[in-house]
Amino acid sequence: MTNKTLLGTAAALCGLIMIAATPASADLLDDIMKAKKIRVSTDLAIPPDGMMDANMKPTGSDVEVAQLLAKDWGLELEFIQTTGATRIPNVMTGKADVIISTLSVTPDRAKVIDFSKRYATLESDVGCLKSMNVKDWPDLKGKTVGVTRGTTQDTTLTNMKDKEFNIARYEDDATDVTAAVSGQIDCIGTSLPIIAQIGKKNPERIFEAKIPITTFDLAIGVKKGEPKLLEKLNAWVDQNVKNGKLNAIYKKFHGVELPPDMRG
Prior knowledge:
Elements: H1 3-21, H2 28-35, E1 37-42, E2 51-52, E3 58-59, H3 61-73, E4 76-81, H4 87-92, E5 98-99, H5 107-110, E6 113-129, E7 144-148, H6 152-158, E8 166-170, H7 173-182, E9 187-191, H8 192-201, E10 207-223, H9 227-242, H10 245-254
Parallel strand pairs: 1-4, 1-5, 7-8, 7-9
Antiparallel strand pairs: 2-3, 6-9, 6-10
C-alpha cells in the first residue's frame, strides 16, 4: 500500500470517528412527545421525597411531582432510579430525560445542566444526636459528619475553610441514615426530613437539626441545549404554582407549606 493510500485511509477513518463522536441534533422534547413517555431520574430511597410504599410502589413529594408532570403532558412515566451522585450523569448520557430528585440549584451544576424554575425548596442542616451540645461550627471540632456523596451538603461542607471536623461520605442517603441509626456517626449533613427519619428508625438515637447549612431552591434538571423542553417545563411549573398543586404536594409529605411567593 502506498503512502498516498495510507494517508487516504487514515483520513477516512478520522472522518468516521468524528461523525460517530458528533451528537445527533435531535430535539429532546419532540422525542419525548413522539415516544409518549418521559423518563425521570428520581431517588426512591430518600423519604419523604422519594420512597416505596407498603405495596412497593413509588411515592413521595418528588414522585408526585413527576406523576403530575406526566399526567399534565399526557405521557407514560418511567422512573429511572438514581442516587445523589448519578442524577446528573443520567441526563447527560441520555438514560433519563429530566431529573426530579431534590436537585438543588447551584452555580457549579448550572455549568453542566440547565434548571427549570424552582418547584420546591429544601432546608439543609447539620443534625446531631439530641443529647449533644452542638450549637455552632466550632462545637463540631474533632467530630465526624456524614454526608451523601455528590450532594450539595457534601460540596458545601467540603469547601468550608478552617473546618475542624471530619467528613464521612456515603454513596446514598439510605446508607448515610443507616450509619447514623447504627451509631457509626453522631452527626449528619442533610435535609430536615432525613434528619427526622433517624429517630423514627431508632428511638434510642434521636437526632435534631443543630446548625443550618442553607436553604436551596429545588428545580427540574435538563441537559443543556434543550430550550424547547426547558420552556415547556417552566410554563408547567408556573401553572402549578398558581393553581396550588405543587404546594399541596409539598405540604402533604413535608408537613409545611412552600414559601409565600410559591403559593397560588
